[in-house]
Design brief:
Layout (H helix, E strand, L loop, with lengths): L1 E2 L7 E2 L4 H15 E11 L3 E13 L8 E11 L3 E2 L10 H15 L8 E7 L5 H10 L7 E6 L1 H12 L1 H8 L2 E7 L4 E7 L2 E8 L9 H12 L21 E5 L3 H4 L11 H13 L7 E2 L13 E7 L5 E2 L7 E7 L9 H15 L8 E4 L7 H15 L6 E5 L4 H11 L6 E5 L8 E4 L10 E7 L5
Parallel strand pairs: 3-7, 7-8, 9-12, 12-13, 16-17, 17-18, 18-19
Antiparallel strand pairs: 1-2, 3-4, 4-5, 4-6, 9-10, 10-11, 14-21, 15-19, 16-20, 20-21
Helix pairs in contact: 6-8, 9-10, 10-11
Length: 459
């Protein structure tokens, strides 16, 4: 290190080893963040949680301020708990709370040491009384935890991503059908080139009463594209795509792939045996493959925080209430050519498939492609207005390119959408992200956006 003193020639002082380490640590922390996260899965049959350490790194080489995940290390997995219920068939929140507290103790993790978390509710847990009790259980973590209630379609999506089936499809460029067999339902997700194209669910599971062989046949029939009408709890799979591979997740997958041999008083073992035998005898056109995760497919989604600043071309209706927190981002499948009716239908279908309650704030994620010509913006805005008009909550749009101000202006001042509009641009998001949108930062007129992502396997 070069230093000069009055009357002296310039000379060097050697840094001590402590100085070097301090500088190196400061430089590292400027571009790297490590977070301790927890993922908690509460379902009809079982509940469990997992602690992870997530390493995020700033994309400095791309001249970006965005932090992205470069590694995730599992710190501790809880035992599988049979979800506790009271005599009136509501979840015993106190017993569940004791389980979570003991998990923190056994993992050696203090509550205030957890930076973020995700609580995924499925099956019976999403019923209003259960969801309210569970929300109260995690009330002290509000702001740091994402609580997501997963209906049938969202369960299909979470299982497909969390099992590794989506990553498998993306990397192999093959069509994969993920079959997630839980306690009360079996969820199907048809994945093409890493994109979930269709989902459905049937009332077959390890805790459903019935003959295991017959229930297995219902699963196999659905894989063949002939779902039994009497057992469907959603619409059947859409389209005529046939999978190249069939993957299994959920509790029954542990028996299918031989990771579990114990019996827990349900039909998981014989159900798995019937399905495994059908594949062994070549009764299905596509082979079976282990995607990597079984019963823990959903809990893989441990929450992570990243922060981005919006672009300067944003639109905020006058008096709109900010900040807003824990808003799920949904991406309707939009083509390159925007046509209002098609845009409206895509948004309507996406909202329906999300299983979110009608009073829940939602952000529409839009990946803009092509030139920002007025007619294209007008058609897109018209479709959004057709699908999203009439509600009392703000209409929130998250766009990855600098068209937020134009899109918001058309919606509010030309189409009179009838709702406050928040149109944020310059933000990179993906399916299953949740966002917090902060108050505008002046004079730059940008807003901070905290992104809470569900982490899924990438390979």
């Amino acid at each position: 290190m070069l230093r000069t003193h009055e009357g002296d020639e310039p000379h060097f002082h050697e840094w001590s080893e402590a100085d070097r380490k301090a500088v190196a640590e400061t430089l590292w922390k400027a571009d790297n963040v490590e977070l301790t996260t927890v993922g908690i899965d509460i379902g009809s049959s079982t509940s469990h949680l997992m602690f992870s350490k997530v390493h995020l790194q700033r994309r400095a080489q791309h001249l970006s301020s965005e932090f992205t995940v470069v590694s995730r290390e599992v710190l501790w997995r809880s035992p599988i708990l049979f979800t506790p219920f009271l005599p009136d068939f509501t979840i015993d929140a106190q017993a569940l709370g004791r389980f979570v507290d003991s998990a923190y103790r056994d993992a050696g993790v203090a509550t205030d040491a957890v930076d973020s978390g995700a609580v995924i509710l499925t099956g019976e847990a999403i019923r209003r009384r259960n969801a309210e009790a569970i929300a109260a259980l995690f009330a002290s973590q509000a702001g740091r935890f994402v609580c997501a209630s997963a209906g049938h379609h969202m369960e299909c999506l979470l299982a497909a991503h969390g099992s590794g089936a989506v990553a498998l499809s993306r990397h192999t460029h093959r069509t994969v059908l993920n079959v997630d067999i839980g306690g009360g339902t079996t969820k199907f997700a048809l994945v093409e080139n890493g994109v979930v194209r269709s989902t459905c669910a049937i009332a077959v599971g390890a805790r459903v009463s019935g003959e295991p062989g017959e229930l297995a046949e219902a699963v196999l029939s659905t894989i063949r594209g002939q779902a039994p009408q009497g057992l469907l709890v959603t619409q059947p799979l859409q389209g005529n795509m046939r999978p190249h591979l069939v993957t299994f997740s959920g509790g029954v997958a542990e028996y299918i792939f031989g990771r579990e041999t114990r019996s827990f008083g349900d039909i998981a073992q014989p159900l798995a045996a019937c399905i495994r035998e059908a594949f062994a005898r070549g009764r299905l056109d596509a082979p079976m493959m282990d995607p990597g995760q079984g019963i823990r497919a959903t809990v893989i989604g441990a929450s992570q925080f990243t922060v981005q600043l919006s672009g300067k071309t944003i639109h905020l209706s006058e008096g709109v209430g900010l900040p807003v927190r824990n808003v799920p981002v949904l991406f309707p499948p939009l083509g390159l050519e925007y046509r209002a009716q098609e845009v409206a239908q895509a948004i309507t279908d996406t909202l329906a498939a999300s299983d979110l309650p009608g009073e829940h704030a939602v952000a529409l994620g839009i990946r803009w492609r092509g030139e920002p010509h007025y007619q294209r913006l007008r058609e897109l805005a018209a479709g959004i207005a057709m699908a999203a008009g009439g509600a009392s909550l703000p209409l929130i749009l998250m766009v990855d390119r600098d068209v937020g101000r134009l899109l918001g202006h058309i919606l509010e001042h030309e189409l009179w959408v009838g709702r406050a509009v928040i149109a944020i641009d310059g933000i990179e998001l993906r399916q299953f992200d949740y966002v917090d949108i902060g108050e505008p930062v002046q004079p730059a007129n940008v807003v901070p956006v905290i992104i809470k992502s569900l982490l899924f396997p990438s390979h």
